[in-house]
UniProtKB/TrEMBL annotation:
Organism: Gossypium hirsutum
Protein name as catalogued: BTB/POZ domain-containing protein At3g22104 isoform X1
Cited PROSITE patterns: BTB, NPH3
Gene Ontology process terms (BP): protein ubiquitination
Lineage: Eukaryota, Viridiplantae, Streptophyta, Embryophyta, Tracheophyta
Location of the BTB domain: 5-68
Alphabetical list of SUPFAM superfamilies matching this protein: POZ domain
Keyword set, alphabetical order: Ubl conjugation pathway
Claim: Transcription regulation is one of the keywords in the record: no
Length: 542
């Protein structure tokens, strides 16, 4: 049969084909509608600017038409042929049963029976078409088949030595008691990491979404994302690294927080510092880290400050971590987790306090970031404030008072109060407040002693109280504080007076402990005390 060349086809500007218009139109509904029943001798020309797969794929279509509807459909060309068949409208209504669209659809329906290597080949070609802006109709189905295969093989424990989890490549672990089997459990779970690490960031995003929707093991998903990030960074440009990191962070953010370690998140953060990723992805990463703040270490938090800032460490970043920790946890935050974060922050504040460029507002923000209930003792914070005031000796009295107002004096130990009362770097009001706090503690201690005493001849009073002592000891009385302090006078005289008061406080504490021990013995023996064992209790004047 004579073949004429009455149709010229320009394919995406890549190549021009001379074709028999009658043959091509008998399979393509698009060309058939374009030329109708024209049988003129004049040559026609058609220009396609967006033909799927370009000139190479058009040649496959032409061969299909010239071979009377026969062509080898395989994983390497199915995505191209399917897209071209849709583009050229090669349906049953045009060519009957010999139509390319039906043939490719039937092959796609058998995706579930393809081997793992065949699925990878098809997925690779789908990715190539997506990168040139052509949508493949089988991309989602191919991804879905891959995820389904992974779900099956994760349950069947595929052999770590093969990367083909098709029906002929699966092998169940028969010896569950085998030490080697347990040893290789992780390698069996991540056998597919290398195969899928060649995917583009967009396809990885689709893959992770499909896995999450199928309730795939999220720990393995997180490991794959970290593996993907590391494998891509070897040859990627800065823009490609940024895109990969954004996809990895967004993927991790969709998973359960317990599926990724705090150490891994900080590893990503240190990479992010050198890349200009989107604000949305950065916020997600900070939220994930903040939610695991109780798992962080001091080294994790010692992140250098951004370029252009004078202070040593990035305090603003740590404050955002704390905000995320408090906001994400809400009422679910346990006291144990709060105490862990408080201990970590005490170490961090002590580390940044010597920075001469750290502004007062930032230092105060760190001190008051957590609620008072997070700390049982404020001694570490006191020492950090002491260092800060020493380094920033130029602070005004008002600024020093502002720093000291952040202290919880009631949770300072006696030793810390002694140190504070003798500390010339602190305002005089702070010294007085520390001692008043100690007085209140002793007052409460004495009140508790009164409530726990057995019935005696005379009740315990605050101004003049009697306790029980060993026979032979005389009565003694300690005056803790009588008179009013004038803090407007000379500071050195005031400090000397406060120091004397503090020694009286210590002496009183010793006496109270001795009294409590004696009363405990009396309660055990239930023997009423004789008058000769009485001694005067200290007087506590307000």
């Amino acid at each position: 049969m004579a073949v004429c060349c009455d149709l010229e086809a320009d394919i995406n500007g890549e190549e021009t084909f001379l074709l028999d218009k009658k043959i091509i139109c008998s399979f393509s509904g698009r060309l058939s509608k374009l030329f109708g029943k024209s049988t003129g001798a004049n040559r026609n020309k058609v220009i396609f600017n967006d033909f799927p797969g370009g000139a190479e794929n058009f040649e496959l279509i032409s061969r299909f038409c010239y071979n009377n509807g026969e062509i080898d459909i395989n994983p390497s060309n199915i995505s191209l042929l399917y897209s071209a068949a849709e583009f050229m409208e090669m349906s049953k209504s045009v060519s009957g049963n010999c139509n390319l669209l039906e043939k490719t659809k039937k092959c796609i329906e058998e995706l579930g029976y393809w081997t793992w290597p065949d699925l990878l080949v098809a997925l690779k070609h789908c990715q190539e078409m997506q990168q040139v802006g052509t949508s493949s109709g089988i991309l989602e189905k191919c991804l879905d088949s891959i995820v389904g295969r992974l779900a099956i093989t994760s349950e069947a424990s595929p052999c770590a030595s093969t990367s083909s989890p098709d029906s002929s490549g699966l092998r169940l672990s028969c010896d569950t008691r085998s030490t080697e089997s347990l040893k290789n459990s992780f390698s069996r779970a991540n056998w597919w990491f290398e195969d899928l690490s060649v995917l583009s960031p967009n396809l990885v995003e689709m893959l992770v979404k499909s896995m999450v929707s199928r309730n795939y093991n999220q720990v393995i998903i997180s490991r794959f994302l970290l593996y993907y990030q590391k494998s891509k960074f070897f040859t990627a440009s800065s823009d490609e690294k940024r895109q990969v990191l954004e996809i990895v962070i967004d993927g991790l953010y969709t998973l359960d927080p317990s599926c990724i370690s705090c150490k891994s998140l900080f590893g990503i953060l240190r990479v992010v510092m050198n890349l200009n990723i989107s604000k949305s992805s950065r916020n997600k990463l900070e939220c994930m880290i903040g939610s695991q703040m109780d798992q962080a270490t001091l080294d994790n938090l010692l992140i250098p400050s951004p370029y252009g800032t004078s202070y040593l460490y990035d305090v603003n970043l740590v404050l955002r971590f704390l905000k995320a920790f408090l906001c994400e946890g809400g009422w679910r935050l346990s006291p144990t987790r709060m105490r862990k974060v408080a201990s970590l922050m005490d170490l961090y504040i002590a580390e940044v306090a010597p920075d001469p460029f750290l502004r007062l507002s930032k230092f105060l923000a760190l001190v008051v970031a957590l609620p008072d209930s997070a700390r049982d003792c404020w001694d570490e914070l006191y020492h950090a404030i002491d260092v800060y005031l020493e380094v920033h000796a130029g602070l005004s009295e008002e600024e020093k008072v502002k720093v000291c107002c952040a202290l919880n004096y009631e949770k300072l130990s006696s030793d810390a109060c002694v140190h504070l009362s003798q500390n010339a770097k602190f305002p005089s009001k702070s010294s007085v407040q520390a001692l008043v706090s100690q007085q209140l503690k002793l007052k409460n201690l004495l009140q508790g002693t009164k409530n726990s005493k057995p019935d005696m001849d005379s009740p315990c009073k605050l101004n003049e109280t009697r306790g029980k002592a060993k026979k032979g000891e005389g009565s003694e009385q300690i005056v803790l504080y009588s008179g009013r302090l004038d803090i407007s006078g000379d500071n050195e005289n005031l400090r000397a007076h406060l120091q004397g008061m503090q020694w009286r406080v210590i002496e009183l504490e010793k006496l109270c402990k001795k009294m409590q021990a004696q009363m405990a013995k009396l309660m055990k023996s239930k023997t009423p005390p004789t008058h000769s064992t009485a001694r005067s209790l200290p007087r506590l004047c307000s």
